[in-house]
């Protein structure tokens, strides 16, 4: 395991950090995003999409748990598991996880069945005002390499 830490001062810096992650991502990777409501998980995912070259804006609609974004270097498979809390049976959201794309899971703690043995976990913490702390835990060789390149 390898760990690291980054701080952003505002939304744009988080988008830029996400874009870096998007450009470093490889096919079939899984990023797990944790952090309180409004921490910046979707914002980071928007940056990741940008880094993959996806034009469409990533949103967090109320009733959609999983959404695919095509048109970039890799397909982005965005899962927001918040509404899955307490119902962790197989709902088929892993259908697209290893189909050559990049999977980003918000609130993965509510979808433990989707967590693979290797991943990059990103935990976001609110600091004062608009500052956010990003804690990275890379499990597995390809994620450790990615994290070394990111830091
Ligand atoms: N440094 C920062 N990085 C990211 N977002 C920031 C930052 N500073 C302020 N913000 C604001 O915080 C909010 C983050 O919202 P976002 O939807 O990304 O959070 P989330 O973690 O996905 O929340 P949820 O758990 O509800 O899905 C946005 O309104 C954004 O403008
Ligand atoms: Mg969100």
Structure description:
There is one protein chain. The protein is of the alpha/beta class. It has one domain: 3-Layer(aba) Sandwich (Rossmann fold). 24% of the residues lie in helices and 28% in strands. It is built from three helices and seven strands, in the order βαβαβββββα. It has helices at residues 11-24, 41-52, 141-150; strands at residues 2-8, 30-34, 66-69, 76-80, 102-106, 119-126, 132-139. Strands 1-7-6-2-5-4-3 form a seven-stranded mixed β-sheet. A hairpin with a 5-residue loop joins strand 6 and strand 7 (132-139). It is globular and about 35 Å long. Bound molecules: adenosine-5'-triphosphate and magnesium ion. The site of magnesium ion (MG) has 5 residues, from helix 2.
Show the helix and strand layout.
Layout (H helix, E strand, L loop, with lengths): L1 E7 L2 H14 L5 E5 L6 H12 L13 E4 L6 E5 L21 E5 L12 E8 L5 E8 L1 H10 L1
Parallel strand pairs: 2-5, 2-6, 4-5
Antiparallel strand pairs: 1-7, 3-4, 6-7
Helix pairs in contact: 1-2
Bound molecules: adenosine-5'-triphosphate and magnesium ion (MG).
Magnesium ion binds next to helix 2.
The amount of beta strand, in percent, is: 25-35%
- How many domain regions? 1
Give a count of the beta strands, DSSP E runs of length 2 or more. 7
Bound molecules: adenosine-5'-triphosphate, magnesium ion
């Amino acid at each position: 395991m390898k760990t690291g830490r980054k701080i952003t001062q505002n939304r744009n810096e988080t988008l830029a950090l996400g874009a870096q992650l998007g450009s470093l991502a490889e096919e079939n990777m899984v990023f797990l995003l944790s952090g309180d409501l409004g921490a910046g998980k979707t914002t980071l995912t928007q940056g990741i999409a940008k880094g993959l070259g996806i034009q469409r804006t990533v949103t967090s609609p109320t009733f959609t748990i999983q959404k695919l974004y095509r048109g970039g270097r890799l397909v982005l498979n965005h899962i927001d598991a918040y509404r899955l809390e307490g119902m962790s049976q197989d709902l088929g959201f892993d259908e697209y996880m290893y189909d050559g794309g990049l999977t980003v899971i918000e609130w993965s703690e509510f979808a433990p069945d989707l967590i693979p043995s290797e991943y990059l976990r990103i935990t976001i913490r609110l600091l004062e005002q608009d500052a956010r702390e990003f804690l990275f835990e890379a499990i597995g060789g390809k994620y450790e390499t990615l994290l070394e390149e990111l830091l």
